[in-house]
Amino acid sequence: QVQLVESGGGLVQAGGSLRLSCAASLRTFSTSTMGWFRQAPGKEREFVAAISSSGVTTYYADSVKGRFTISRDNAKNTVSLQMNSLKPEDTAAYYCNVVRGRSPVGGSWGQGTQVTVSS
Length: 119
Fold this sequence. Notes:
mainly beta
């Protein structure tokens, strides 16, 4: 079963930047599409971004397109999310997972990392 550890969250002012990281203990990491999700209080978890196993293909939710960039390092089994031009509506707990399309398929979640954007 995959184990996921997210880090890098924090409190930032609107317009600021953060870089999230996810370390995955997954034998098949280098052949898995990985993604980020987020969940704001009182809302369902939603898809944010994903990256193909090779890193060549990336895709994003419309709400973050042009502001967030997903990347990965297959040698270190890590996937990152660079978040720029942050908005208060980006406030949420952020999670990574194995994805298929825009759905999580890893079977479990990490503890997540909290991002809070103040206005």
